[in-house]
């Protein structure tokens, strides 16, 4: 069988076994083993692409070009991290008798299913399959958001599902309109919705229909990416979801949704020129970065803080793509890679801290956590510095690449506003997290001893993720860099 | 000529059903209206299939009628029966004002549709006009109504509008894709139903405007 098909089949089987239930040890082994194998297979698929044999299956409906291969590897990586951390996470909850059999089945079934749907997004060459895959990610994640079955998680789940479904309805309308724009040129049958087919006939597409389709599709997939003003589900969902699922949403889903936006953008660019969809992405991206500012400054919950940081990062990537030009696109994809490495550290440490205090509200966590949970606190501080793009960490370089390209492009004013917003966000996040970690304990509640942090699988994953993220600052493996370059070539339209 | 008249009639019927949905409060009636709307969509698909001898559209019509005119309405009625809530409470905007807004939205929808190519039988831009109006009305329903079931119906109305474009304006989506979409939609409705159950269990109401703890 085809390598690409295996990459998708393994997480699906893992999900099926996990969903059935069974002894805890078996569930844990299957999930970690399955997602480890998935990561290995996604790397193998990317290697096959780099070796010059673009992997494809089902009559090119699934196909991996540079962009797909990059997103595939990143999603596979995050899937593995989420699995190992997730096992540790659930064990801790189990030790406190917080886990019902229903929860266990949902957890071990839905996390691999979510990974499967994200990988399917990454390799879809058919706009119809792409839409179906994105809808599957929504359906797989909804019961992860309502996992803890609190009042607030039902609220978050409802908002997520209604807003997400509406976004997807828009994306479907966009897809249908794109299809309508190519009537008479795309041909018949399944291959008529292939992205590659759209690119071949791009100059012949009906301009007005295409424009309308692009607007709907960008708003629709933008909702899934969490671009402002369609971002409102994100803080709620991130707060309620258990951290292993949160990291899948914050990294995997963000990359996947951005992948969809890029595919639509590329069709539009090939047909209408870069200004139309590029301008739209630039506007939405800048708005996302700006909207995150006030909410980070007044934030009352650690995970919501990370959600707004995620909105910021989607914004940064959208700005990078929207600015146009190869340098900015390279910056955006580099940012995607570095962000995928750095964000899990933030999520895992915040999640551990929340677990130790039984809440992610800043009030409950208190200040000065470094004296109570030193390792987690240090990692959280480190993550805060990394995700805000402070030097010498990697995201600083990708942000500089985008900014440099921005000042050299036709949008220096936009870039200046963007830069100012990034500075404010840096101060906001570092202040907030610095306060939690290092702040002087004021009232007795801050001195109480919570549950102690213990060396376990969750802690190990967290430390490993942190080491990888720091190492990536100084050294990116050559094949990964080649993948980023190949993806840049796809985005800037070179063969 | 008969074909295009029939198409326009069905499309107009779908628009009217969307208006009626805005205009009344009994949830059962709203679900029946959705069922009728889906049936009309099925007729559009059959008409296209016969007049252009595109046989794969018969499959589309069959899926539409079975799924959206029968299974989904049946499921939603069961949900309502179980939780025993039958009426929409006073919406954020009263009915006459809502209908006026919808007229405005229809004008917008039609205005946008004039940019489309006229198409084979002079009906394409009518269908697109109706579809865009229905999308806007669905959005409007979603923001002004409080009951969870009404929000689901609003979503499904938007989805019907999308299929009206797919069936009436394009040569039909590839069948594999359509099956996948149908599968996803039924799954989504199922999940929404489960969530409504959980919300009613927890809050003893399906008034989603009560879901307002999370802010900032």
What does this structure look like?
The complex is a heterodimer of chains A (495) and B (216). Chain A has 495 residues and is mostly helical. Chain A has one domain (3-491). Helices cover 77% and strands 1% of the residues of chain A. Chain A is built from 19 helices and two strands. Chain A has helices at residues 3-20, 24-50, 66-95, 101-123, 127-145, 151-181, 195-200, 207-225, 233-240, 243-272, 275-297, 302-323, 326-357, 362-365, 374-387, 394-408, 412-438, 457-474, 478-491; strands spanning 56-57, 62-63. Chain A has a two-stranded antiparallel ribbon. The longest helix of chain A has 32 residues, at 326-357. Chain B has 216 residues and is mainly alpha-helical. Helix content of chain B is 76%, strand content 0%. Chain B has helices spanning 2-23, 27-51, 56-83, 95-113, 124-144, 148-168, 175-203. The radius of gyration of chain B is 18 Å and the shape is globular. The relative contact order of chain B is 0.15. Chains A and B meet through helix 5, helix 6, helix 8 and helix 9 of A and helix 5, helix 6 and helix 7 of B.
Could you list some keywords that capture this structure?
heterodimer; A: mainly alpha; two-stranded antiparallel sheet; 1% strand; B: 216 residues; mainly alpha; 76% helix
Brief overview:
The complex is a heterodimer of chains A (495) and B (216). Helix content of chain A is 77%, strand content 1%.
């Amino acid at each position: 069988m085809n390598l690409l098909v295996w990459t998708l089949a393994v997480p699906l089987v893992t999900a099926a076994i996990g969903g059935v239930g069974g002894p805890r040890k078996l569930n844990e082994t299957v999930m970690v083993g399955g997602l480890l194998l998935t990561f290995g297979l996604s790397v193998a698929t990317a290697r096959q692409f780099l070796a010059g044999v673009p992997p494809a299956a089902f009559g090119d409906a699934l196909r991996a070009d540079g962009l797909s291969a990059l997103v595939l590897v990143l999603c596979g990586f995050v899937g593995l991290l989420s699995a190992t951390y997730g096992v540790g996470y659930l064990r801790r909850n189990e030790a406190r008798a917080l886990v019902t059999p229903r929860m266990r089945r949902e957890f071990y079934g839905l996390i691999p299913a979510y990974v499967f749907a994200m990988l399917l997004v990454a390799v879809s060459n058919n706009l119809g399959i792409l839409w179906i895959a994105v809808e599957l990610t929504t359906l797989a994640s909804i019961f992860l958001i309502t996992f803890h079955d609190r009042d607030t998680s039902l609220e978050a789940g409802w908002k997520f599902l209604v807003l997400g479904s509406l976004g997807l309805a828009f994306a479907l309308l966009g897809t249908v309109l794109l299809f309508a724009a190519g009537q008479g040129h795309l041909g018949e049958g399944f291959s008529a919705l292939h992205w590659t087919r759209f690119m071949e006939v791009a100059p012949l597409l009906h301009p007005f229909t295409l424009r309308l389709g692009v607007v709907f599709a960008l708003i629709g997939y933008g909702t899934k990416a969490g671009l402002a003003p369609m971002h409102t589900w994100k803080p709620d969902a991130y707060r309620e979801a258990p951290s292993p699922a949160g990291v899948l949403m914050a990294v995997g889903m963000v990359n996947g949704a951005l992948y969809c936006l890029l595919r639509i953008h590329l069709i539009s660019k090939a047909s209408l020129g870069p200004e139309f969809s590029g301008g739209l992405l630039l506007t939405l991206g800048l708005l996302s970065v700006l909207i995150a500012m006030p909410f980070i400054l007044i934030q009352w919950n650690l995970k919501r803080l990370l959600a707004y940081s995620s909105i910021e990062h989607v914004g940064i990537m959208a700005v990078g793509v929207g600015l146009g030009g190869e340098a900015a696109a390279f910056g955006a994809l580099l940012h995607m890679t570095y962000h995928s490495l750095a964000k899990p550290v933030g999520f895992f440490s915040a999640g551990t801290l929340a677990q130790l205090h039984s809440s992610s509200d800043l009030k409950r966590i208190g200040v000065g956590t470094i004296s109570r949970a030193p390792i987690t606190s240090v990692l959280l501080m480190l993550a805060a510095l990394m995700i805000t793009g402070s030097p010498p960490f990697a995201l600083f370089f990708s942000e500089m690449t985008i900014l440099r390209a921005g000042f050299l492009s036709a949008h220096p004013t936009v870039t200046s506003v963007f830069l100012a917003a990034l500075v404010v966000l840096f101060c906001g996040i570092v202040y907030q997290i610095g306060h939690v970690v290092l702040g002087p304990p004021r009232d007795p509640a801050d001195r109480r001893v919570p549950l102690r942090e213990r060396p376990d699988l969750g802690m190990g994953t967290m430390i490993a993720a942190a080491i990888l993220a720091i190492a990536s600052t100084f050294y990116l493996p050559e094949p990964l860099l080649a993948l980023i370059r190949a993806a840049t070539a796809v985005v800037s339209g070179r063969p | 000529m008969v074909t295009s008249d029939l198409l326009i009639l069905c499309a107009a019927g779908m628009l009217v059903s969307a208006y009626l949905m805005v205009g009344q409060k009994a949830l059962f009636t709203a679900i029946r209206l959705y069922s009728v709307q889906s049936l009309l969509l099925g007729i559009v698909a059959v008409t296209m299939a016969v007049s252009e001898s595109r046989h794969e559209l018969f499959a589309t019509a069959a899926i539409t009628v079975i799924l959206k005119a029968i299974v989904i309405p049946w499921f939603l009625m069961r949900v309502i029966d179980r939780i025993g809530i039958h009426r929409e409470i006073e919406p954020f905007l009263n009915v006459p004002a809502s209908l006026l807004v919808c007229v405005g939205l229809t004008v917008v929808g039609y205005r946008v549709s004039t940019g489309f190519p006229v198409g084979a039988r002079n009906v394409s831009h009518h269908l697109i006009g109706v579809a865009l109006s229905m999308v806007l009305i669905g959005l409007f329903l979603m923001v002004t109504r409080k009951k969870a079931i009404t929000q689901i119906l609003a979503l499904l109305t938007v989805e019907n509008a999308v299929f009206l474009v797919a069936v009436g304006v394009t040569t039909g989506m590839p069948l594999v894709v359509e099956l996948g979409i149908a599968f996803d939609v039924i799954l989504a409705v199922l999940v929404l139903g489960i969530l409504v159950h959980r919300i009613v269990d927890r809050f003893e109401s399906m008034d989603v405007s009560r879901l307002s703890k999370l802010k900032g």
